[in-house]
Write a structure and sequence with these properties.
Helix content is about 45%, strand content about 10%. It has about 200 residues and is mainly α. It has two domains: about 1-55, no CATH class; about 65-195, HAD superfamily/HAD-like (Rossmann fold). The strands form two sheets. A three-stranded parallel sheet has the order 3-4-5. Strands 1-2 form a two-stranded parallel ribbon. The radius of gyration is 17 Å and the shape is globular.
Amino acid sequence: MNHVLGALGLGALPAATLTGYVGDGARVLVERALGPAHQDLLERGVALFMGHYGAHLLDATRPYAGIAEALAALADRGVALSVLTNKPTAMSRAILDGVGLGARFVDVLGGDALPVRKPDPAGLDRLRQRTGTARERMLLVGDSPVDLRTAHAGRVAFCGVAWGLAPEALRAAGADRMIERPAELVPLVERGQAARSS
């Protein structure tokens, strides 16, 4: 985002500020970063952002420690895994494939796949139908208040993760279940705690 701001002749923003703008898709990120005084640059800013982001998807992207092992353990137990993100679908698939995790997921649904995006539950419902998962057996695992709101809107259980972008914001938003490490997800699912509806 700071690359875009520089290209538009605007000053850089602190990483912590930009992190707080993440979660509702690229357009909203750019809109927030530009601020009210520069909304006339929104369309150009979004185009610059998408071009730069698309060219640098995997520059510093790595799975969090323990993610690959947790996904493998869940897949071995027959758990249907899918991804719901506000990133574009093609970019999301490229990231997952690039870090060697793409084959773990039944489906990947990005923010450009439907007319609405998280926290609207339409994407969640689409994935639930695609995986053949009953609502009461679905668990949304996420790292942001947007994910929590999506789970509530879709009436599915939620588990927050403490290794994401904003664990404090997630706790403040009311996440009543948080895990500290990816490995904790496996026994959680095995015990059937994923079946508790929010």
